[in-house]
Design a protein that fits this description.
- By secondary structure, the chain is an alpha/beta fold.
- It is about 30% helix and about 25% strand.
- The protein has a 6-stranded mixed beta sheet, sandwiched between helices.
- The two termini are about 35 Å apart.
- Mean pLDDT is about 85; it is low at about 270-275.
């Protein structure tokens, strides 16, 4: 399947000499939710700005659904909706008016039914007569999403869309995102809330210092790079462990009341490679260390992200 966005050898060097992007190659598939993660200054916003036609690239090409974004700018840009980090709306307008204006900029005919549908989906219909300047920060953020959807784009960029938005509104907004994806809209998002990416994304890309260091299907990434932990709640607390347990590299936590064993979830039992849990439990028994309960946990996407960026 041809990607809806294809980026090749994209770089950006500013007049100061700072190289924000370095030879980016990236494909975005149609109707997926793609999360772009990276620390501050990694190049996320610059990359989005170039794809959306706001920032000029130094080298490289971007193709939007078959349209070269430099040579066929109008066709490419008409397919994209952008929700920026900054609150950029006319404070004296109402939500329907700012949507209608944005729709007109893309040459779309007036469609009050579409505007009403979007505002209702974003829980803004009750505020349709209010000036944007009177709305809360979270509602202003939702107005930006409504504005980006005014011309019915096929691709939606969300640059930190839930920054400053309370938990309840975040849930509402992600419900809208799921509905958009179900309708065929491709979603590309950046977020500092990695739990959102873990819950929402189909694929994850990690950018650091202007370079894409990983692109992976989310579930495969967590399976391939995730580690598991076995936590044992002890019958009696311990201060130290016998040397016979050194090979397990156990961590003593909770004031000596718990032992934590970290193991690689990638090991293939079919090939005779085991996690070592059975041997650990036997060695604990032989050492006279008894436990009353145990539980397992898996590395989160945030753990993996921090590890990748650190490395």
């Amino acid at each position: 399947m041809q990607p809806v966005i294809s980026i090749r050898n994209l770089s950006k060097t500013y007049a100061s000499g700072f190289q924000a992007l370095k030879g980016i190659d990236l494909d975005i598939q149609r109707s997926e939710i793609f999360a772009l993660l990276g620390p501050n200054g990694a190049g996320k916003t610059t990359l989005i700005g170039i794809v959306c036609g706001i920032v000029n690239a130094t080298t490289g090409t971007v193709t939007i659904d078959g349209h070269d974004h430099a040579r066929d700018y109008r066709a490419a840009r008409s397919l994209i909706g952008l929700v920026p980090q900054e609150l950029t709306t006319d404070s004296f307008e109402t939500p329907p008016a700012t949507m209608a204006f944005s729709r007109g900029l893309f040459g779309k005919k007036r469609d009050d039914a579409h505007i009403e549908k979007v505002l209702k989906a974003l829980s803004l219909w009750d505020k349709r007569d209010a000036k944007i300047m009177t709305l809360s920060g979270g509602m202003k953020r939702r107005v930006l999403i409504a504005k980006a959807l005014a011309h019915e784009p096929e691709i939606l960029f969300l640059d930190e869309p839930t920054a400053g938005v309370d938990v309840e509104l975040r849930k509402d907004m992600w419900a809208v995102v799921r509905d958009l994806r179900a309708s065929g809209v491709t979603i590309i998002l950046t977020t500092h809330y990695i739990d959102e990416a873990e819950e929402m994304a189909d694929r994850v890309g990690v950018i650091n210092r202007g370079e894409i260091i990983l692109v992976e299907e989310k579930r495969a990434l967590m399976k391939k790079l995730g580690q598991k932990q076995l936590t044992l709640e002890l019958v009696a607390p311990v201060d130290a462990l016998p040397a016979t347990l050194d090979r397990y590299k156990l961590a003593i936590t909770a004031g000596g009341r718990e032992l934590v064993y970290t193991y690689d979830s990638r090991r293939d039992r079919a090939n005779g490679e085991h996690t070592g849990i059975t041997a650990l439990l036997e060695d604990l028994k032989d050492s006279g260390i008894r436990f009353s309960d145990l539980r397992t946990s898996q590395s989160s996407l945030e753990d993996i992200f921090v590890s990748l960026v650190r490395n």
